[in-house]
Amino acid sequence: METKAGDPAAFAHFDLYRVPSPAFVVDEAAIRRNLSILADVRDRAGIKVLGALKAFSMWSLGSIVGEYLDGVCASGLYEARLGREEYQGEVATYCAAYKPADLAEILTISDHVIFNSPGQIARFKPQIDAARAAGHSFDIGLRINPQNPEGEVAKYDPSQPHSRLGFPVSQLTPDHLASVDGIHFHNLCEQDLAPLERTWAAVEPHILPHLSSLKWLNFGGGHHITRADYQRDDLVAFLQGVKAQTGLTLYLEPGEAMALDAGILVGEILDVIDNGMAVAITDISATCHMPDVIEAPYRPAMLHEPSDGPLTRLGGPSCLAGDIIGDYRVPGGAEPGARIAFLDQAHYSMVKTNTFNGVPLPAIWLWNSTTDKLTEIRAFSYQDFKARLS
Ligand SMILES: Cc1ncc(COP(=O)(O)O)c(C=O)c1O
Known about the structure:
The structure is a single chain. This protein has helices at 28-45, 62-68, 77-86, 100-109, 118-123, 125-133, 193-207, 232-246, 256-259, 286-289, 292-295, 382-387, and strands at residues 23-27, 48-52, 71-74, 90-94, 112-115, 139-145, 167-168, 182-184, 216-218, 249-252, 263-274, 278-282, 312-315, 324-328, 339-342, 363-367, 374-378. It is of the alpha/beta class. The strands form two sheets. Strands 1, 11, 12, 13, 14, 15, 16 and 17 form an eight-stranded mixed sheet that branches. It has an eight-stranded parallel β-barrel with strand order 2-3-4-5-6-8-9-10, surrounded by four helices. Helix 1 (28-45) packs across helix 8 (232-246) and helix 3 runs parallel beside helix 4. Residues 52, 54-55, 73, 94, 186, 189, 220-222, 253-257 line the site of pyridoxal-5'-phosphate. It is found in: Cytoplasm. One of its GO terms (molecular function) is diaminopimelate decarboxylase activity. Its main location: cytoplasm.
């Protein structure tokens, strides 16, 4: 999988020795830049934009997100709670399947509760009615599956055959929407406008007959809106068109776009050996700190990597033979003690870290590239590792 980001932006001038290693460093100015682009699209199109916490839930920036966006979208109870506690505006919760106890709380803290199937909505009707009778006010949504594959990689495509994500749109009947206020789909990943337009074209004939009973449509995330070459004016025109056509409130819920190119993961080379090529062990682990490197897989861009010079294979300190980040030309040479940084790590890395092998979690630092203010937000210790086990 090719990553379309990787612009060092202000990090080109960041001294990697200013923070302990390993550490995520997030640039507040870059986050604000992304959020203001999203807010501009929102305002021009007359829609609502929610930030997807699954991608970027650095909640110390919750009030900053609230300055620009209409709220957040959550993947279940914990993110919904985080959204309500630390962010402003609406909370829209979608989960592929709810457990009754979780749903009870979700219904009290969410503005939109989005279900994956009409079967779940019917099964939970008594609980939904009881929550409303107790004074809680929320909309019910149904996630549909557009059955329109657009993904570059099948395993990341919600429209893959036999997908579990969303109710197949071709099966939709008026009965399924009897108690539904809005329709949700999420079909994209790091994509441009054209796949969204094709997805809308695929679902539109199935949705138009039901407009009179609906309040809103949510087009999910995966829109790479803050990438420099994204077709933002065309997106605005497209959204204005759908809004005029349907008369409904439209939502987008981008995650990655909030934090695109806004953070790095700083690490240090601990040792270098020769095994047919230079192999360096770093204090960054692919499996613990950047699992998408193995899962996607993809090769994260490295800050200041020269275009020629000897390649070094970089890997983490864990026991996993496949804990390999990739082969890189390390700027200044791969020597113990040398600092390195991987670009575009604010989203889908910080939220996915784990402590396999007892590998320490990277600290979280906030930098403001405009003022140069640098603040430690959180450091992790042995206690954080121990607290997750028993
Ligand atoms: C339902 C839903 N909404 C929003 C998003 C955010 O997507 P992205 O971070 O690619 O914008 C995702 C990502 O998987 C998702 O599943």
